[in-house]
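Annotators were shown the component list below and the corresponding predicted structure, then asked to write short factual statements about the assembly.
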Amino acid sequence: MPKHITPEETERQRAFAAKLAEQNARAAQACGSPPLACTRTYGCQQNENDTERIRGILSKCGYGFTENENDADLIIYNTCAVRENAEQKVFGRLGILKHMKESRPSMITAVCGCMVQQPHIAEKIKKTYENVDLIFGTHALYRLPELLYKTITEKQTVCDNAPSDGAIAEDVPVMRKDGASAWVSIMYGCNNFCTYCIVPHVRGRERSREPEDVINEVKELVRMGKSEICLLGQNVNSYGKDLDRSVDFSDILRAVNDIDGVKRIRFMTSHPKDFGDRLLLAMKECDKVCPQLHLPFQAGSDKVLKDMNRRYTKAEYLEKIERAKRELPGAALSTDVIVGFPTETDEDFEETLDVLRKAEFDTIFSFIYSRREGTPAAKLKPVLSDKRIHENFNRLLEVQNEISKRKNDAYVGRIEEVLVEGVSKNDAGMLTGRCASSKIVNFKGGKPLIGKYVNVRITEAHTWSLNGELV
Ligand code: SAH
Ligand code: SF4
Ligand code: F3S
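Structure shown to annotators:
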């Protein structure tokens, strides 16, 4: 059995939420509207899903919501620590908040998530940004009602970034994003300790939710009208290893596939070392699992993979990709790559390019290595200059852009079913959505189509997206 927070603790948090809701209802009576909260998310889908929980909690505490920070009585930044630039963005925002707070001293500002789970960052914020009222880490999310109550009533800076005791908090209210798509975290944390990565340090050890909890959440989502389910975990292939019964990720896929009303199932992320035939078979047999596979390889050189503690070789990785291509013909492949890991030489980098050419991914997410305090790789001296790393990074993009465009060209003329997500950012007259293999498709259409599945004939391919017309 995974450890859960106790029913008494859940009740305690409900009581704090009720007290805040009472206060906020009084404020609403006095000024005509409830206090407004504004949330901003930096980071991965798991963080987005956490923000949905934060908004769920805030709603129970009687807050309304605004997208505009200038109208907000409470601003919460949910942060990411995976690369330095993610942290720099937040520090930049905190500087701006400092000025906003001078003119609106009653506004409450909070920073939460992966970044502040690191003690040295929480300390830096406390010292440098006195305007921040509340700091809470990833493991304290469910305690938000109590923390917020303390911040407001005691009028002092509150900080809770204690490490996880391994307990899972079910029963946290969730306010979902609009549309037909929904995230479901099936597990938390990571045990892999890739040497460059901060995630295991800020998210704790792997904890799988009970299968019934996952299935019940999906059923509830279907009742709410959601039909595309994205199952989340840092390494979904490890699902169930910590449970005291025999269940793995392929069992979850099959169980979700059996739920009436679910139309599409996506998942991320798979770790290549654990990716095998059982999962491939489930993907093949489950008709609702989308034809896509995200399998991060990070680097092509066996030496670098070893230094990264990835626990597979280039040959093993490519063999798994070949098997995936054979078993899931037509599925879109994507990956994550890091350029400039400290021990990577130019020769090592050539191996990364070789993987790109052989695997022929549809899409890659590429990153320049970012030194993360507290990780083993942070102690290594880089062998290549920053300039050289940037040159290599640009070469990587060049090689991949040609492959991505070629892969997208093959879609021209096809009719794809697209789940419409919203209005295209680049062209207001266009809608944007994703086809089954997760490619972005832009096409002309009216707003009532948002949240619906439509058939689109692909007319034009770009490197990052497709254009089409409604059929
Ligand atoms: N659990 C997932 C994703 C982790 S974070 C996985 O293992 O694939 C998403 C991506 O960020 C990683 O795949 C990696 O490519 C990148 N990343 C993580 N730490 C990084 C660092 N220190 N510098 C640059 N990129 C990093
Ligand atoms: Fe980070 Fe590796 Fe875990 Fe992914 S598998 S979250 S890259 S430690
Ligand atoms: Fe995600 Fe960033 Fe945290 S990638 S798990 S939000 S460090």
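Statements collected:
1. The domain at 3-167 is CATH 3.40.50.12160 (Rossmann fold).
2. The chain has a mean pLDDT of 96.
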